[in-house]
Write a structure and sequence with these properties.
The complex is a heterodimer of chains A (493) and B (365).
Chain A lengths: L17 H16 L1 H8 L3 E6 L2 E6 L2 H19 L8 E6 L21 H8 L2 H10 L18 H12 L8 E4 L6 H15 L5 E5 H13 L3 H9 L3 E5 L8 H16 L3 E6 L11 H7 L3 E4 L5 H15 L5 H10 L4 H17 L9 H4 L1 H6 L1 H4 L2 H12 L3 H4 L6 H17 L4 H8 L3 H17 L1 H20 L16
Parallel strand pairs in A: 2-3, 4-7, 4-8, 5-6, 6-7
Antiparallel strand pairs in A: 1-2
Helix pairs in contact in A: 1-2, 1-3, 5-7, 6-7, 8-9, 12-13, 12-14, 13-14, 18-20, 18-23, 20-22, 21-22, 22-23
Chain B lengths: L1 E5 H12 L13 E7 L2 E7 L3 E7 L2 E4 L1 E6 H10 L4 E6 L4 E6 L2 E6 L1 E2 L13 E6 H11 L14 E7 L2 E7 L3 E8 L8 E6 H10 L5 E6 L3 E6 L2 E6 L18 E6 H11 L10 E6 L2 E8 L3 E8 L7 E5 L1 H10 L4 E6 L6 E4 L4 E5 L7
Antiparallel strand pairs in B: 1-5, 1-7, 2-3, 2-6, 3-4, 4-18, 6-10, 7-8, 8-9, 11-16, 12-13, 12-15, 13-14, 14-26, 16-17, 17-18, 19-24, 20-21, 20-23, 21-22, 24-25, 25-26
Classes of the chains: A alpha/beta (493), B alpha+beta (365).
Chain lengths: 493, 365
C-alpha cells in the first residue's frame, strides 16, 4: 500500500515513551510505598496514556483501580511529576471484563504508542477489517489513498489524518464544511478506515444525521431508547455526515447534545460534516453550535486547476479510461464545479472519445460538455454579471455600485454584490475587492455582514436568493431569452 | 375516613415509615404518608420513588378510605399528643381532624389517588432468611459503604447468594467489610444484587431479632416482607467490582485483642489524632499494643493495652475511625488483627466468617 503520508511510526514523538517512564517510575513507587504494596497493587499495572495532565494507569481489575486511586493518588502524582509535566492527576482503568479474572498481559502488546499501530495491523486480516468497516457503515471506495489533496483541502486532510491517528485528543470535534461534492463524505469514510486500520478493535459508527434521526424515532417507537443510547454513546469514533439536517429538529438536537457530551467526556472522537458552517445551520441550538465550533473547523474549498486535473487523472487511472492529459486539462478548464460534476464530465468525454475511436481533440471538449458547464454556477457566473444583476435589481448604475457613495440603498447593493461574488464565483478575495475598487477587508466585512443580516431579515434573504436564481437561470439561457426587465437597459452606463 | 387509634401504635408506625420521606423533594406528595383504612386497620406507606415502605397497624376503623398527610408533621403532632386515644377523621377535601383529649388539630392533606403506586414486581427469585441473621450481617458491613457518588456501584451493600452462602460486602476503596452466612437457597438460583444505602438503613430499622423474612429479588428491584412491614427498593445497576482482589493473602502475624478494651483505647487516643493525616499509630510488640497519637501544636496521647502477640515489633498507622467502625459493630469479645507488614493492608477478623480489610496510612517515621 503506497501512501503519500508518513506512517504514524515516522512522526515525531508527541506521546512520551510510556513504557520507559513506567519502568523508571515503578522503581520509585517500590521505594516509596514498599515492596509489599508494590507487589500487591502495581506489579501488574502499567502506564496506559497521559492526557490533559492526567496519567492513566491500567490495573488488572476494577477493584484494584478503586483502591489504588483512593490510597495512592497523592504519592503517585508526586512520583510521576518527575517524569511528566505538568501532571495534576492519576486515574486508573481496569482491563478486566468485570468477572474479576485477571487479564493475561500478552493480550495487548506492551506499548509505546508509537509502535502500536504497526503491531496491530499485522494482527487483523484485511478481510476482517473490511467486514468491520462495512458493518460500521463505511463505504469502501473512500479512503485516504484515493483522496487527492490540493491547496483547497490540505487543512481538512491533515486534520482528518490527525484524528485517525490520535482520536479524541487533538481536535474534538472535527467539523468539515463545504459546498456539496467537494470531499467531506470522502474524508469521513477515510477517517473511519484509517482508524480501523490503526485500531482494529475500535467501535466506529458512520451515519448521516438523517439516519441518526430515524434511528432515534425508531427507538422511541419501539421503546428502545436505552439500546439506542448505548449504541451511540459507546462508540470510539462517531462520524456524522450532513449534520445540517439537525437544524430545526429540536428533539434530535437534544438527544444529539447528550450523545455529543457523553462521547466527548469519554474522549471519543467525533467528526461532523455539514454543507455550511456550524454558525449557519438554521435553527441549531446555540449550545450545539458552539460545541461544533469547539474543536477544529476545516473548510473544503473548490479545487483549483491543478487539483482538479490531479483528481481526474486519478479517476481516469482508477477507471482505466483512455483520455489523454490534454483532454483532461481541457475538461478541467471548462468545468470548475464540484468533484461529482467533474467526474461526470470525464465520463462523458471518455465515452465520446471511445465512440469516435480516440479522435476527440481538446477543441471538441467545450461542445461535448456544453450542457454540463451550464449546471455549474461557478463556471457560468462572473463578477460582471453579478454586478449587472445587482444594479438591475436595485436600479442603480454600475459606476454608483463601484463608486464611493454610501447611502443605505447603495451600500446594501454593494454588500449583496460582494457577497454574491464571494459565494457564487471562485474568484479570490483580492480579485473581488479590486473589481469594486476596495480592499479585501471590506469584502470580508461585507460577506460577514450579509450572512448576519440574511439571518435576521427574511426579505433581504429572499432578495439575495432572487438575484442568485436570476443569475443562474440567466447565465444558462442568456442568448435565447431576453432579460426580465428590458426597461432597465437604457439606464445602464 | 374515620378511625380511632392508640397513640403509641400510631407513633411507632409513623416513625418507622417517615425516614423514607425526603426533606427536599420536588414532588409535594412524596413528603406525605399514604394512609389507607380498611376493616382490618391501617396501612401506612411512604416512598421516595426508590425505596417504598409499607406498614400495617391495628386501628378501630369506623369508616374506610384513603388519604395522604404530611409525614413528618403528622409524626411530630402524634408524638406530642397528651392522651393515648386518638380520633382521626378526614373529610372529602383531605383535611384531617385529629382529636386527642383536650387537643384538636386540623391537618391539610392531599388525595390518596395522587400517591405514586409501586410498580408491579416482576418474576423474582424468592427465599426466606432469618431476620436476625440479616440484621447482624448488615450491621457488620454497612458502615463501609462508600459515600462517593461518583462510584455509584459502591453506594450500597453487595449481596451475593450462591453455594449455600449469603455474602455481603461493602467497601469505599480504603476499607472493606465482608460477612458470609450459611443460607439455604434453591440450587441454580444464584444471584447478586447491590442494595442501596438508603434501603440498607431502613431495613436495619425494620429488622428484629426474631422471626423470618421473605426476600424477593428481580434484576432491578428487591422486596423484603417482614412482620407487618414491607420494603421495596430499586437496586443499584451495574457490576460490583471483584472484591476478592483486595483481600490480602496469608498473614505473617496475628494479634489477639479484647474488642471493648481496644475500642475504648482507640477512641481516647483518637482525640489527639493528627489532624492533617488523621492517623494514629499502633505499635505491636511483646504482648503489648501501644496506641499513640501525635498532633503538632496540639499534643500527644498514648495508651498501652495487653494483647496476645509474640512476633517482631510492627508499627503501623491507621485512620482511627476506620479501626473503630468494625469494633463498634461487632459483638464478639475478642478480635484478631492479621498483619503482613507495616505497609500492607491489615485484616480484622473474628471467629465467625467476617473480615475487614483496612489500608494502613503511610506516615513518616
Amino acid at each position: 500500500m503506497h501512501s503519500p503520508y508518513p506512517l504514524p511510526t515516522d512522526k515525531p514523538l508527541s506521546q512520551p515513551n510510556l513504557t520507559q517512564i513506567w519502568s523508571e517510575a515503578s522503581i520509585e513507587i517500590r521505594q516509596a510505598l514498599g515492596n509489599s504494596n508494590y507487589d500487591l497493587w502495581f506489579a501488574n499495572a502499567r502506564l496506559l496514556e497521559v492526557s490533559e495532565g492526567t496519567a492513566v494507569l491500567q490495573t488488572p481489575g476494577s477493584m484494584y483501580s478503586i483502591w489504588v486511586e483512593e490510597n495512592f493518588k497523592e504519592s503517585l502524582v508526586s512520583i510521576f511529576q518527575n517524569y511528566l509535566e505538568p501532571l495534576t492527576g492519576i486515574r486508573c482503568e481496569s482491563v478486566e471484563a468485570d468477572d474479576g479474572q485477571e487479564v493475561v498481559q500478552d493480550e495487548e502488546p506492551d506499548k509505546p504508542v508509537e509502535v502500536k499501530p504497526k503491531v496491530l495491523i499485522e494482527k487483523v486480516s484485511k478481510s476482517k477489517l473490511r467486514e468491520r468497516g462495512l458493518k460500521s457503515g463505511l463505504v469502501e471506495k473512500y479512503n485516504f489513498e484515493n483522496f487527492v489533496v490540493g491547496e483547497n483541502s490540505d487543512l481538512a486532510a491533515a486534520a482528518a489524518r490527525a484524528v485517525s491517528e490520535q482520536p479524541g485528543k487533538t481536535y474534538q470535534p472535527l467539523f468539515f464544511h463545504s459546498a456539496c461534492g467537494l470531499g467531506k463524505t470522502h474524508l469521513l469514510h477515510a477517517i473511519g478506515w484509517e482508524s480501523l486500520r490503526l485500531r482494529p478493535k475500535s467501535k466506529i459508527i458512520f451515519v448521516t444525521a438523517e439516519e441518526f434521526a430515524n434511528d432515534y424515532i425508531n427507538a422511541i417507537h419501539k421503546n428502545a431508547l436505552v439500546a439506542f443510547r448505548k449504541k451511540y454513546r459507546e462508540a470510539d469514533l462517531l462520524l456524522i455526515d450532513d449534520i445540517q439536517f439537525l437544524g430545526r429538529k429540536d428533539g434530535f438536537q437534544k438527544e444529539f447534545f447528550h450523545t455529543f457530551n457523553s462521547l466527548s467526556d469519554r474522549q471519543c472522537q467525533i467528526v461532523l460534516a455539514s454543507d455550511c458552517p456550524a454558525s449557519e445551520i438554521s435553527e441549531l441550538e446555540d449550545r450545539l453550535s458552539s460545541r461544533f465550533q469547539w474543536g477544529l473547523t476545516a473548510e473544503l474549498h473548490r479545487p483549483e486547476f491543478e487539483t482538479r486535473a490531479a483528481i481526474l487523472r486519478r479517476k481516469r487511472d482508477d477507471w482505466n479510461m483512455e483520455v489523454s492529459d490534454d483532454l483532461i486539462n481541457a475538461i478541467v478548464e471548462r468545468v470548475r464545479g464540484n468533484v461529482r460534476v467533474l467526474e461526470g464530465a470525464l465520463i462523458r468525454v471518455a465515452m465520446v472519445n471511445t465512440m469516435n475511436e480516440n479522435t476527440v481533440e481538446t477543441s471538441d471538449v467545450p461542445e461535448i460538455l456544453s450542457d454540463i458547464c451550464g449546471d455549474s454556477e461557478a463556471a457560468s457566473v462572473g463578477i460582471d454579471e453579478i454586478k449587472e444583476a445587482v444594479c438591475e435589481h436595485y436600479d442603480i448604475e454600475l459606476k454608483v455600485l463601484i463608486g464611493k457613495k454610501r447611502t443605505a440603498r447603495v451600500a446594501e447593493a454593494r454588500q449583496v454584490a460582494m457577497f454574491l461574488c464571494r459565494t457564487m464565483t471562485d474568484h479570490s478575495l483580492v480579485d473581488v475587492a479590486a473589481s469594486f475598487g476596495k480592499d479585501h477587508g471590506t469584502v470580508i466585512y461585507a460577506v460577514k455582514k450579509m450572512r448576519a443580516k440574511c439571518e435576521q431579515s427574511a426579505s433581504l434573504k429572499s432578495t439575495v436568493e432572487l438575484i442568485k436564481r436570476r443569475l443562474v437561470r440567466g447565465g444558462r439561457v442568456k442568448s435565447s431569452q431576453p432579460k426580465k426587465f428590458p426597461a432597465d437597459f437604457p439606464n445602464r452606463g | 375516613m374515620k378511625f380511632q387509634i392508640e397513640k403509641d401504635v400510631f407513633q411507632e408506625a409513623l416513625n418507622q415509615v417517615q425516614h423514607v420521606v425526603s426533606t427536599r423533594t420536588t414532588l409535594p406528595i412524596l413528603s406525605n404518608v399514604l394512609i389507607e383504612a380498611d376493616e382490618l386497620g391501617l396501612q401506612l406507606s411512604t416512598t421516595d420513588l426508590d425505596v417504598t415502605i409499607t406498614k400495617r397497624i391495628a386501628a378501630n376503623v369506623s369508616e374506610t378510605g384513603t388519604t395522604t398527610m404530611p409525614a413528618r408533621r403528622l409524626a411530630s403532632i402524634v408524638r406530642e399528643l397528651p392522651v393515648s386515644e386518638i380520633n382521626f377523621e378526614v373529610n372529602a377535601d383531605n383535611a384531617a381532624s385529629v382529636k386527642a383529649g383536650p387537643s384538636f388539630f386540623k391537618i391539610l392533606g392531599l388525595p390518596g389517588s395522587e400517591f405514586p403506586t409501586i410498580g408491579e414486581f416482576g418474576e423474582a427469585k424468592e427465599f426466606t432468611i432469618d431476620q436476625k441473621l440479616l440484621k447482624e450481617a448488615l450491621r457488620k458491613t454497612s458502615y463501609a459503604i462508600s459515600t462517593d457518588e461518583t462510584r455509584y456501584v459502591l453506594n450500597g451493600v453487595n449481596c451475593l447468594i450462591g453455594e449455600g452462602l449469603l455474602t455481603l460486602v461493602a467497601t469505599d476503596g480504603r476499607r472493606l467489610a465482608m460477612v458470609e452466612q450459611d443460607l439455604e437457597f434453591p440450587a441454580g438460583n444464584e444471584t447478586a444484587a447491590i442494595i442501596p444505602t438508603k434501603a440498607v438503613n431502613e431495613l436495619q430499622r425494620l429488622l428484629e431479632d426474631e422471626g423470618e423474612m421473605k426476600v424477593s429479588l428481580t434484576d432491578s428491584q428487591a422486596s423484603f416482607e417482614l412482620n407487618e412491614s414491607h420494603l421495596i427498593t430499586k437496586l443499584i445497576e451495574g457490576n460490583y467490582p471483584n472484591f476478592r482482589q483486595v483481600i490480602p493473602g496469608a498473614a505473617n502475624h496475628r494479634v489477639t485483642v479484647e474488642r471493648e478494651l481496644f475500642h475504648n483505647a482507640v477512641k481516647r487516643v483518637s482525640l489527639l489524632a493528627n489532624e492533617k493525616t488523621n492517623s494514629i499509630k499502633f505499635a505491636f510488640e511483646d504482648n503489648q499494643l501501644t496506641i499513640s497519637a501525635n498532633s503538632p501544636e496540639v499534643g500527644e496521647a498514648e495508651e498501652v493495652i495487653d494483647v496476645r502477640y509474640d512476633g517482631p515489633r510492627i508499627v503501623v498507622a491507621f485512620n482511627p475511625e476506620f479501626v473503630m467502625a468494625p469494633l463498634r459493630n461487632l459483638d464478639q469479645d475478642e478480635v484478631f488483627i492479621d498483619l503482613i507488614d507495616e505497609s500492607s493492608p491489615g485484616v480484622i477478623k473474628i471467629d465467625e466468617p467476617f473480615l475487614y480489610v483496612i489500608m494502613p496510612m503511610r506516615v513518616a517515621g
